[in-house]
C-alpha cells in the first residue's frame, strides 16, 4: 500500500475518534458551540473518506479511456471538501442562531471542555502530518484534508474560549455568538479551498518559482541546442505536465537530438519526480529567438 493511501486511511480513523470525543463533550455540556464543533467533525470524516477514494482513483494507471491518467481525481476530492466545509459552516450558523434565540444552560462544563481540548490537540497533530506529508508526496487531497483539519483546530480553540468565558461570566449568549463567528470563518475557508481546487481542474500552470526552476534546468542542460520556446506547464494531482519546442542546428543528427532531450528530461525528473515531459524537436529555421535561451557549455 502506498504512503499516500496509508495516510488517507489514518485520517478516517483519527476523524472518527475526534468526532466521538466531541459528541461526548457536547452531550456532557449541552453547549451549542460544542455541538457546532462536532458537526464540523462529521464533515472531517466524510471528506477523509472522499480523499481516500480520490487517491485510489488517481493512482490508477493510464488506460485507453484516460490516456493521461486519472490524476485529476484528487482535485475533485479537494473541491468536494471545500463544498462540504461550506455546508458545515451553514449548519453551524443555523445552530448558533437557534442557540441565540434560546441560550442553553451549560452542564458539566469542566469535563466537556477537557474532552474537547484533547480532541483539538489530536486534530492539530494530525493536521500537521497531513500538510507536511501531502506537500512531500505532492498530494492535493492530503493537503486539502490537512488545511480542513486546521480550520477545525481553530474552531475548537475559539469554541473552548467561548465556553470558558460563558461559564466564568454567566453570560450564556457568548456560546451561540461565538459559534456563529466560527461558522463565518469556516465559510470563508471553504470558499478559498474550493476556488484553489477549481484552478487545478482548469489546468493552471505550475507556481512561478517552479516554472523558473524548469526554465533554468532547460537552459543549463540543453547544451547543443539553440533555444526552447512555447514552454507550457500544468499540474494534475501529483503529476506535472511539461511540454516545449526545442530548436537544434539543422545538421544535428536524430541520435544527438535525442541525447539532448534525455539530459533535459533526467534533470527535470530529478526536480519533479513524477513529471511527464513532451519535447518537440525543430530545425534552426523554426527558431523564434524568444523563450529559453540555451547556455553555452
From TrEMBL:
Entry's localization field: Cell membrane
GO cellular-component term (any): plasma membrane
SUPFAM superfamilies given in the database record: Cation efflux protein cytoplasmic domain-like, Cation efflux protein transmembrane domain-like
UniProt domain Cation efflux protein transmembrane: residue ranges: 11-202
Keyword Membrane: yes
Keywords assigned: Cell membrane, Membrane, Transmembrane, Transmembrane helix, Transport
Annotated InterPro entries: Cation_efflux (IPR002524), Cation_efflux_CTD (IPR027470), Cation_efflux_CTD_sf (IPR036837), Cation_efflux_TM (IPR058533), Cation_efflux_TMD_sf (IPR027469), CDF_Transporter (IPR050291)
Protein's organism: Paracoccus onubensis
One of the GO BP terms on file: intracellular zinc ion homeostasis
Source organism, top-level taxon: Bacteria
Membrane spanning residue stretches: 7-29, 41-59, 75-93, 108-128, 149-171
Molecular function in Gene Ontology: cadmium ion transmembrane transporter activity; ferrous iron transmembrane transporter activity; zinc efflux antiporter activity
Sequence similarity: Belongs to the cation diffusion facilitator (CDF) transporter (TC 2.A.4) family.
Main subcellular location: membrane
Protein name: Protein p34
Membrane topology: Multi-pass membrane protein
Amino acid at each position: 500500500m502506498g504512503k499516500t493511501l496509508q495516510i488517507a486511511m489514518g485520517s478516517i480513523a483519527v476523524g472518527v475518534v475526534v468526532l466521538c470525543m466531541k459528541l461526548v463533550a457536547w452531550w456532557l455540556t449541552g453547549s451549542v458551540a460544542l455541538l457546532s464543533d462536532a458537526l464540523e467533525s462529521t464533515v472531517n470524516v466524510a471528506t477523509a473518506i472522499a480523499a481516500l477514494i480520490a487517491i485510489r482513483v488517481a493512482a490508477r494507471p493510464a488506460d485507453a479511456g484516460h490516456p493521461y491518467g486519472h490524476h485529476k481525481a484528487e482535485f475533485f476530492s479537494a473541491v468536494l471538501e471545500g463544498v462540504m466545509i461550506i455546508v458545515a459552516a451553514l449548519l453551524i450558523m443555523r445552530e448558533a442562531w437557534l442557540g441565540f434565540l434560546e441560550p442553553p444552560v451549560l452542564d458539566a462544563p469542566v469535563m466537556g471542555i477537557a474532552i474537547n481540548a484533547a480532541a483539538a490537540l489530536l486534530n492539530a497533530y494530525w493536521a500537521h502530518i497531513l500538510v507536511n506529508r501531502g506537500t512531500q508526496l505532492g498530494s492535493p487531497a492530503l493537503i486539502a484534508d490537512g488545511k480542513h483539519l486546521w480550520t477545525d483546530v481553530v474552531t475548537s480553540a475559539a469554541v473552548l474560549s467561548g465556553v470558558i468565558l460563558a461559564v466564568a461570566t454567566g453570560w450564556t449568549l457568548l456560546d451561540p455568538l461565538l459559534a456563529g463567528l466560527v461558522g463565518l470563518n469556516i465559510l470563508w475557508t471553504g470558499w478559498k479551498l474550493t476556488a484553489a481546487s477549481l484552478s487545478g481542474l482548469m489546468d493552471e500552470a505550475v507556481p512561478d518559482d517552479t516554472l523558473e526552476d524548469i526554465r533554468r534546468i532547460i537552459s543549463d542542460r540543453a547544451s547543443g541546442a539553440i533555444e526552447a520556446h512555447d514552454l507550457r506547464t500544468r499540474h494534475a494531482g501529483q503529476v506535472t505536465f511539461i511540454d516545449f519546442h526545442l530548436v537544434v542546428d539543422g545538421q544535428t543528427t536524430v541520435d544527438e537530438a535525442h541525447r539532448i532531450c534525455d539530459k533535459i528530461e533526467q534533470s527535470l525528473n530529478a526536480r519533479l519526480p513524477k513529471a511527464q515531459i513532451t519535447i518537440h524537436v525543430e530545425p534552426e529555421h523554426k527558431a523564434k529567438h524568444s523563450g529559453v535561451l540555451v547556455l553555452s557549455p
